[in-house]
Amino acid sequence: MNAPVFEPKALWGYFSALNRIPRPTHHEEAIRQYLLDEAKRLKLVTVEDEAHNIKIIKPATSGYEHVAGVILQSHVDMVPQKTSDKVHDFTKDPIETHVEGEWLTADRTTLGADNGIGVAAILAILADDSLQHGPIEALLTATEEVGMHGAKGLQPNWLDGKYLLNLDTEVEAELCIGCAGGVDILANLPVSYRPLDPSLPQYTLDLTGLAGGHSGKCINEQRGNAIKIIARLAAAINQRQPIQLVRLVGGSLRNAIASQASMQFACALSLDDIKALLLPVFEQIKAECSTHDQSAHFTLAASETPSEQCLSEACQAQLLQLVTASPHGVMRMSLA
Fold first, then answer.
1. What is 193-325's CATH number, 3.30.450.20, 3.40.50.1220, 3.30.70.360, 3.30.360.10?
2. pTM of the model
3. CATH fold label, 3-166
4. How many angstroms from the chain centroid is the CA of residue 329?
5. How many alpha carbons lie under 13 Å from residue 168 in its C-beta half-sphere?
6. Per-residue pLDDT tens for 184-198?
7. Residue 328: CB partners within 8 Å, gap ≥ 6?
8. Taking a C-beta distance cutoff of 8 angstroms, is the pair 231, 323 a contact?
9. DSSP SS3 for 139
């Protein structure tokens, strides 16, 4: 990204710098050091707490000491997600960006704008000596994406500002008053196996092209969940001809809508018969999904690594029922 092309230059310059620094959740040492070094360059006071949150203090402009202090908050880590065909090590490689029309995007990885653009905006404000302002505290929290650990580790009275603005949002010219929380549910299903019928052909079904997205920001857009969709496809085949399920894999992160899934199974139907069976089912599923998901597609091929065992009949039924019954998306929306 050639930062000077964009306006405001300071914001995009900082965002470009941030995207050269690997910062997936739990690998935030480099970004913290960058923030500390940049604050030192700006001659601003910094404090780092035991939870690795960083506070940068910018004193009030002369004559504005009486103005209520403002806390500008963003988190420093990012969600490390990529497409299956992209070679990228989030702990070592910079984010590769390019411009598509009016959008800045990444090359088959997450962009890091959540919440890099918020951090960049804060740094741009800290660096701007032309502003007239009251006391400013920049609060840059750690390890947000997997449970807001940095925010939970904040100690009472560590901050002095009266107002806190969280910059982890994506809608221009709007202020959001409120918050949302999350709950993790870890479910364990005992797995049992049986010998797989060696006379049956084995197939691999890959589902790709779904938009995915953040499970908080995008959950109201009816985006398809690859894990649930592939379970529906499995059920459709099984209803016509019993399958023997070898594996079902999907998703990557707890707070990302699954955009890809894969299934290996054995079935007496031919490859062409299965494709013909799945096509109308898949088109119906796509019709139920968001317009963001219309590039979704599946591929079916003979398995390159046949298995000698599969899930037991009872375990397979439980697994498919569990995935099918698990909720996804907004259960109910207010009319307000």
1. 3.30.70.360
2. 0.65
3. Aminopeptidase (3.40.630)
4. 15
5. 23
6. 888 889 999 999 999
7. 225, 228
8. yes
9. strand
